[in-house]
Each structure stands twice: as C-alpha cells, then as structure tokens.
C-alpha cells in the first residue's frame, strides 16, 4: 500500500509554550524525512502529533491513501510503527516472550524468529528484559518495529545507545522500508548516513 | 490468538512473576484477615457477625495494593504508546487489563476467603454466601479500581491517591457483599446479591470506557 503524509499549518503548544507554529510539510511514498533541532524544539511532540497520540492546537495531519484521505487520529494510528525514546521492554519477560506478545497484539504474520535474527537477538531469546543493556533494549524495540508491518515509521532517536553495527542495521532497515514504499520520519541528532530531506525545528521561543 | 487474549495473558504473566504483586495481595489479605480475630479475642458469636464485613474490606484493600501499577508500569516504559497504536481499541485494552487483574487477584482472593472463613467460625450458609458475593463483587473492584489507576497513571506516588478516589466508589460493593453474608446467616432475605450483581455488571460495562478516556487524556498530556 502506498501512502503519503501531509501536514498543514501545524501548531503545537505544550504547557503554555508554543513549540512550533504553522508547520507544513509533505512526505511522499518511499521518502525519509529527518527531523532536526535543538533540545526542546518539539521533535518528539511532532512525532506524537503525527501518531495521533497528541492533538495539535491548530492545523491538520492527513494520510493520503489509495482509498482516500485519513484525518482521524485513531484511524491514523493503525498505520504507525512507533519507536519512542523508551523501548517498551518489560523487565520480567524474556526477549522471545516480548516479541511474541507484540506479534499477537499487532496481528503480525511475520515469524518473531526472523526479527530476532535481523537484530542479533537470537542468543538472547531466553534472557529476561531486566538483564538487557540499553543497546540491546533498543534492538528489541527495532525488532518489534519490523514485526508490526506498518507503512509509516515514526522513530524517536532510533540510534540512541546503539553500537556501530547496530547503527548500520537501522540504516539498512530504513532503506529497505523506503524501497518497499514505506515512509520514515526520524527525529535524530546523529546523522543516519542516508539521503534524506531534513526538517529543521527552531529553538524554543 | 487475538490481540485481546495476548494482552490479557501478558498481564497475568506479569502479575504472577516476581514484582507483579498478585502473590503480595494474597499474602496481605491473609495477614489482615488472620490478625482481626487475634485482636478481638475468642468471641465466636461476634466474629461470625463481623466476618463478612472484615473479609470484604480486607479483599478491597488487598486488591488496591496491586492496582496502582495497572497502567502506570506500561506508561513509564513506553508500552502504553505501543498498545495505544495497536489494532486493539483502548477500551478493549483497558478491559483486558482489568480482567487480568481480576484473574490474578480477585479470583484467588475469592478462593482463599472460603479457607479463611474458618477463623471466624462462619457456618456453611454464610461461607458460601461470602464466596458467592466475592465472586460477583470482585470484578467491580478491579473495574472501578482500573478507572482510578488510569486517572493516576502519570502521578508520582499515585498509589496514595488511588484509594481516595476508588474507596468511596466501592462502598456499594462492600455494603451489599457483607449484607449478603448477614442475610445468609440470619435468614432475612434482602436481595443483597441481586444488588451486588447489578452494581458489578454496570461497573464492568462502563469502566473500560472511563479508563480508556482517561488514558487518552494522560497520553496527550
């Protein structure tokens, strides 16, 4: 399915502070948009707005699909693959249990083993979440993203805590997703090493 | 396996593993219920008279112990965002979490209560009425407690505010629950179990909507 994303005149206000005003942009199928800006510029808020978890003070976000435009926040959420700045890892569950849970929750048809293999988690399959390092938790989050098979990826600092090999894996995953027609929006301080358009959010005013 | 069952079984698994709080709630229930006869002394008539009330209050307090983390744990580690974006509507997710809490806490409490009723010299009609009232009423405790948990999910030390919100709302369950035990003991049928069933059905039906609305508000906040 080919979708594109259109944001019109977005304004975001958090606790009486305007983070950004009248922000408009469009992301075409297969494109990668990097969101840059200093701390507190509203990168995470923008991603949450697009995911429909946050409501804009003004403006609209629409997904243009083959069967029409989707403006409703909850419906939009059904297209979103999400990596937040936390990795949704439970300390009591093993890596394998967590991936199986997410696969079932998202009605995924992909085998969890494949996603574990792709991010080098195979040897950790029976290790509980509390013993994972920050980088390993990140890899688990990314494996979850691969499982859920959503066309619009929203990534908040996807490279955080990852080693060099992990960063290459993320870049490859993003590239493969874009080639298959998916969209990727990534808020990041580190360069991804990929061709992308960049959206600069200004400093907080 | 449907997303609903997936979330339900994950939450039960989390509740019964270390740090989940299900076993803790049971131990707390047993400790409180055992302590009251020790404090009151060997007046069997009085103990039988108060058994329903004591066990009901203890069950509500024990269930509250593990309720504050119902949504908060998932909120803090980012799981709630992932659940909110899943194909499962938030109302269904809230219901799954409440059901998991009941299966891990309310149901074991009900089973344990029949055993602990011996301490109060509760005769069979009273003990069976107590078990029936807990079976019918504890789902309402998990459901209404779930609203409180959703309201306080972003508050530090929310576990202290939660009882203040939830306990007044649970007064009908305690009144009708212990009333059913007294009715069975002294033979004056007063329809407590029917009122309790109505209260419980209403709570289980409405609470997921209230909890989901509150989760949405907290995620956007």
Please, could you describe this protein's structure?
- The complex is a heterodimer of chains A (205) and B (221).
- Chain A has 205 residues and is of the alpha/beta class.
- Chain A has helices at 43-51, 73-77, 95-105, 112-118, 134-148, 164-179; strands at residues 4-14, 17-27, 32-36, 58-65, 68-70, 80-83, 152-156, 183-187, 197-200.
- In chain A, strands 6-7-8-3-9 form a 5-stranded parallel beta sheet, sandwiched between helices. Chain A has a 4-stranded antiparallel beta sheet with strand order 2-1-4-5.
- Chain A starts with a strand and ends in a 5-residue tail after the last strand.
- Chain B is an all-alpha fold.
- Chain B has one domain (3-220).
- In chain B, helix 3 packs antiparallel against helix 6 and helix 9 (171-186) packs antiparallel against helix 10 (192-220).
- Chains A and B meet through helix 3 of A and helix 1 and helix 5 of B.
Task: Tell me the series of helices and strands of chain A, N- to C-terminal.
Answer: EEEHEEHEHHHEHEE
Distance between the termini of chain A: 39 Å
Q: What is the CATH T-level topology of one domain in chain A?
A: Rossmann fold
The count of DSSP E runs of length 2 or more, i.e. the number of strands of chain A, is 9
Low-confidence stretches of chain A: none
Query: Percent helix among the residues of chain B?
Result: over 70%
């Amino acid at each position: 399915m080919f979708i594109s994303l259109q944001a019109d005149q977005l304004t975001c206000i958090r606790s009486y502070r305007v983070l950004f005003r009248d922000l408009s942009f469009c992301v075409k199928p297969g494109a990668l948009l990097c969101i840059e800006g200093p701390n507190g510029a509203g990168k995470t808020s923008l991603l949450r707005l697009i995911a429909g978890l946050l409501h804009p003070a003004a403006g609209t976000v629409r997904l243009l699909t083959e069967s029409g435009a989707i403006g409703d926040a909850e419906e939009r959420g059904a297209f979103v693959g999400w990596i937040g700045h936390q990795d949704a890892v439970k300390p009591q569950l093993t890596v394998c249990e967590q991936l199986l849970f997410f696969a079932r929750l998202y009605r995924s048809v992909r085998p969890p083993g494949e996603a574990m293999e792709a991010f080098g988690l195979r040897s950790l399959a029976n290790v509980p979440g509390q013993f994972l390092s920050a980088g390993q938790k990140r890899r688990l989050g990314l494996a979850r993203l691969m499982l859920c098979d959503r066309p619009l990826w929203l990534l908040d600092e996807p490279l955080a805590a990852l080693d060099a090999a992990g960063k290459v894996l993320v870049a490859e995953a993003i590239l493969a997703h874009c080639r298959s027609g998916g969209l990727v929006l990534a808020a990041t301080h580190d360069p991804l090493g990929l061709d992308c358009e960049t959206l600069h959010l200004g400093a907080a005013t | 396996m449907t997303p609903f069952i997936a979330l339900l079984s994950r939450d039960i698994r989390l509740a019964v593993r270390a740090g989940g709080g299900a076993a803790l709630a049971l131990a707390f229930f047993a400790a409180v219920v055992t302590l009251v006869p020790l404090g009151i002394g060997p007046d069997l008539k009085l103990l039988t008279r108060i058994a329903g009330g004591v066990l009901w209050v203890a069950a509500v307090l024990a269930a509250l112990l593990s309720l504050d983390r119902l949504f908060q744990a998932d909120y803090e580690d980012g799981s709630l965002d992932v659940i909110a974006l899943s194909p499962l509507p938030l109302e269904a997710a809230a219901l799954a979490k409440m059901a998991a809490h009941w299966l891990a806490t309310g149901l074991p409490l009900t089973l344990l209560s029949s055993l602990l009723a011996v301490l109060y010299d509760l005769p069979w009609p009273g003990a069976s009425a107590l078990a029936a009232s807990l079976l019918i009423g504890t789902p309402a405790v998990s459901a209404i407690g779930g609203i409180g948990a959703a309201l306080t999910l972003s508050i530090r030390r929310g576990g202290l505010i939660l009882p203040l919100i939830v306990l007044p709302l649970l007064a009908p369950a305690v009144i009708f629950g212990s009333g059913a035990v007294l009715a069975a003991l002294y033979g004056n049928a007063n329809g407590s179990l029917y009122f309790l069933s109505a209260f419980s059905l209403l709570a289980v039906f409405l609470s997921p909507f209230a909890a989901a609305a509150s989760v949405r508000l907290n995620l956007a906040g």
